[in-house]
């Protein structure tokens, strides 16, 4: 439903621009670090569920005179672990979530399988495994830079608190000062570097009621 409303608004605004009734709108792209966002939501009141389409609608409207060009989701997905009860259900839910985002709302989706690394302690011979998320942050940063340098947007909003994106934001803004690179996330997971690098920060704490299901 929300994506349909976005399309209707885009068509309406285009007609108004052509008629000279409103000024040209700034082109907006939204880049969502899905795992970082989900982690932040889980840190909030666990009884509250948040809506991704409502979040997108809120970010489109948080500053006037903008229109959405594209929404990108980035995430790593762990394959089913046979040793964990019901992990297959978890995997199917994750795949279904991203399929719905792509088919129902028109979002661009980038996912990668996690890589399981096995370790052994040389001192005590203990063993353990860890799922590593490779390539997801790089994909987001690459798209942010490429689309910015090729004039595909005027404003980008990164939904993440990961300070690793701070360097990419600084480099992009220094190379092309006309771009606005903004950040949105809950305050408790906003890293200092990404917050300092951004043109503006939209704290979701202050608008949580607008993005709940």
The share of residues in helices is 40-55%
Structural class: alpha/beta
Radius of gyration: 19 Å
Distance between the termini: 13 Å
Per DSSP, what share of the residues sits in E-state strands of 2 or more residues? Answer: 15-25%
DSSP E strands, number: 8
User: Strands of the largest sheet, in order across it?
Assistant: 3-2-1-6-7-8
Poorly predicted sequence stretches spanning 5 or more consecutive residues: none
* Main β sheet profile: 6 strands, parallel
Mean pLDDT over the full residue set: 86
The CATH top-level class label: Alpha Beta
What order do the SSEs take from the amino end to the carboxyl end, as H and E? HEHHEHEEEHEHEHE
Number of helices: 7
CATH arch. level architecture: 3-Layer(aba) Sandwich
CATH superfamily: 5'-nuclease
CATH-defined topology: Rossmann fold
Number of discrete domains = 1
Shape call: globular
């Amino acid at each position: 439903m929300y994506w349909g409303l976005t399309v209707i608004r885009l068509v309406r605004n285009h007609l108004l621009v052509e008629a000279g009734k409103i000024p040209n709108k700034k082109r907006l792209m939204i880049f969502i670090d899905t795992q970082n966002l989900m982690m932040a939501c889980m840190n909030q009141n666990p009884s509250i569920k948040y809506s991704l389409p409502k979040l997108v609608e809120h970010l489109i409207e948080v500053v006037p005179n903008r229109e959405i060009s594209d929404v990108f989701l980035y995430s790593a997905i762990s394959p089913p672990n046979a040793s964990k009860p019901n992990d297959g259900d978890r995997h199917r839910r994750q795949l279904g979530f991203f399929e719905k985002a792509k088919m129902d709302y028109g979002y661009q989706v980038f996912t990668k399988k996690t890589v399981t690394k096995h370790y052994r302690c040389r001192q005590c011979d203990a063993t353990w495994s860890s799922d590593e998320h490779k390539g997801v942050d790089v994909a987001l940063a690459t798209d942010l830079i490429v689309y910015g340098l090729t004039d595909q947007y005027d404003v980008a909003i990164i939904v993440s608190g990961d300070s690793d994106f701070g360097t990419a934001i600084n480099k992009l803004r220094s190379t092309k000062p006309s771009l606005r690179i903004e950040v949105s996330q809950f305050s408790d997971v906003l890293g200092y570097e990404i917050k300092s690098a951004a043109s503006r920060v939209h704290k979701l704490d202050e608008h949580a009621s607008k993005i709940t299901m």
